[in-house]
Amino acid sequence: MSRPLLRVENLQTRFDTDHGIVDAVNGVSFTVDQGEIVGILGESGSGKSVTARSICRLEDPGEIVGGSITFADRELTTATEATLRQLRGNKVSMVFQDPTESLNPVFPVGEQIAESVRIHQSSETQRLLDFLGVSPFRDRSAWKNAREHAIGLLDQVGIPNPEANVSSFPHEFSGGLRQRAVLAIALASEPALLVADEPTTALDTTTQADILSRLRSLRDEQNTGILLISHDVGVIAQTCDRVVVLYDGEVMEAGPVERILTAPEHPYTRALLSCSVRNSDADEQAQSVMARLGDPSSSHEGCPFADRCQHVTEACRSGSVPTTEDTSDHRLACLEAPFSEDKFVSEQQEIPAANGGQQNDTA
Ligand SMILES: Nc1ncnc2c1ncn2[C@@H]1O[C@H](COP(=O)(O)OP(=O)(O)OP(=O)(O)O)[C@@H](O)[C@H]1O
Ligand code: NI
What ipTM was reported for this prediction? Predict the structure, then answer.
């Protein structure tokens, strides 16, 4: 079997804060293959973003104290800043929830895309020109090509009227269009891996569904590997091939999305899914279950979910919980599953629909 594009193995990332050590990611393992969309699902604070940021060590990722991250056969945990910078501009792109952070307000959107294309395509000569500080696009035909490429990318991400909008400034765009523009910049370098951290969370459901379907097309057409981070079961269901369920920095369950969402085995996955189904019916009781779940224990002995689990036994609270793996690529970290009173599948008839942000956003 060919090697995965990205392999994260036993990753441990921590923060040394005024209030002590925070073990944000505590032994997380997963892979992303070429042409595969892998989701990371978990509530707020479960370590999704820290996992993503650890991959490229962007924006204060914390200190990686254990494990390994291999991307295209390169070990990233020990890579130099220069290697990481090269990867980020080239092979790995990231998209975050807030597009305003990734866009420069003083340049037209098209120029920012063209710049990203240029960096990607820059030859040794261009690198030398960059080094010498010679400005880009002195050459009109180079700029014309870059502009055309940018227009194509705007079209690909669903920005209407790309010929006109290529000259627009970020503030002239709605939130949805801005997020599409960020995606276009991310795609300009033709990345092998796209890491998207809650890319549609602030958008209305129609825009969200459209952007997610474009991610799937990207995978289909360009064989891009995608790591999609979301707290929203519906987003994961719509988009991913496989999913990794995180709780308090640890993987509770992982496997093919259909199996995890229709026949979840870990009590945490089951709680997360039934809350999600009921939340979409605005069930207040479910909301209060979520509130109780959202306060992970700080102890790392045993299962992190033990205090909230209805199946807990003494064994769950001590030692480490082994992860079992079966032949269909399913992993489970639970001592008690399967449960004899298992009625989950018959109770949950369908995969919940996306219930992302409700902000109005016309794009
Ligand atoms: N810069 C930081 N300094 C200290 N602790 C941090 C820092 N960034 C994250 N953490 C902690 O690491 C843990 C995981 O955070 P992370 O941002 O990965 O959660 P998340 O799953 O992405 O949540 P959300 O859905 O809210 O984005 C949390 O306990 C968080 O408080
Ligand atoms: Ni996050």
Answer: 0.99
